[in-house]
Design goal:
The protein contains seven helices and 14 strands. It is an alpha+beta fold and about 250 residues long. It is globular, with a radius of gyration of 17 Å. It binds thymidine-5'-phosphate and aspartic acid (ASP). The site of thymidine-5'-phosphate has 12 residues, from β9, α2, β12 and β14.
Length: about 250
């Protein structure tokens, strides 16, 4: 446990955010808790927090290298990320390359149908209202962000999609869909926050379409942590695996 952590600022379904001595920085602790179905299905899976912290850190590093501004500063423990403080925007920005999940439940898409151009969807991050889907007019009327910010978020999301699709495909994973959260830094810049992990993405094997993400848990199947571990072994370099003691 890092001794840089001060008081707990926020606790979510799978992560805790702590203050540090520096007001511009927080520590995000990735817990082993896993939930689905709006929190209706819960479990605690040993090492899940570590694997999600390692995967998120790696993907944030790749995005930073490609000019995307992220909250990530560095990993300070296997499951603790030092990050920039952000004022989070209550939007779940979902980007879809292949039809799956709620999209095929709610609309007449074929399961596994390719979506080109990708679909970008905004859900309201609001537990009381169960994260309803928004459109531009509702976002503006609720004064969540202005149109300029929304347009920038769309552009950044498409860039992130391109960078991550390429990176993951080289490592035999298809990025089916994912969810992002953004915030403002102290200078008012839009910055990618939260996490990008198998909790917040659908990742399929490029050949077999086997999934390596939270859908395994949503379906009540076993092997969730093994799948997350597999993603770690695919995205980290050998040196990174040695550094963080990943077998
Ligand atoms: P969905 O098909 O259930 O709408 O999910 C689309 C993507 O967004 C999928 O990769 C999982 C991710 N997601 C979250 O990370 N958090 C959520 O609360 C939801 C509903 C989806
Ligand atoms: N994130 C939501 C929950 O934890 C829904 C999901 O990912 O399935 O309940």
């Amino acid at each position: 446990m890092s001794d840089m952590k001060k008081e707990l600022l926020y606790t979510g379904k799978a992560k805790d955010v702590y203050k540090t001595e520096n007001d511009d920085e927080v520590i995000i602790k990735f817990r082993d808790d896993i939930t689905a179905l709006d929190g209706g299905k819960k479990d605690t899976l040993s090492k899940k927090g570590i694997y999600n912290a390692l995967i998120s850190s790696k993907l944030f590093e790749i995005l930073e290298e490609q000019g995307v501004s992220t909250q990530y500063i560095k990993l300070i423990e296997q499951d603790e990320m030092l990050a920039k403080s952000l004022e989070m925007i209550p939007l779940e920005v979902i980007c879809r390359n292949i039809a799956a999940g709620s999209l095929v439940k709610k609309y007449p898409f074929q399961n596994k149908q390719e979506l080109n151009p990708p679909i970008i969807q905004f859900d309201y991050k609001n537990d009381e209202y169960h994260d309803p889907m928004l459109n531009d007019s509702i976002i503006l009327a609720l004064d969540i962000v202005n149109q300029e910010t929304l347009d920038k978020i769309r552009d950044i999301t498409l860039t992130i999609n391109k960078v991550l699709c390429d990176y993951l495909k080289e490592r035999t994973l298809l990025l089916v869909d994912f969810k992002l959260e953004f915030g403002f830094d102290k200078d008012g810049n839009i910055v990618l926050g939260d996490e990008i992990s198998p909790d917040t993405t659908r990742l399929w094997d490029v050949e077999t379409l086997e999934n390596f993400d939270k859908d395994i848990f949503r379906k009540g199947e076993s092997g969730v942590v093994d799948a997350y571990h597999k993603v770690v072994t695919l995205v980290l370099t050998e040196d990174e695996k040695d550094k963080w003691n990943v077998e």
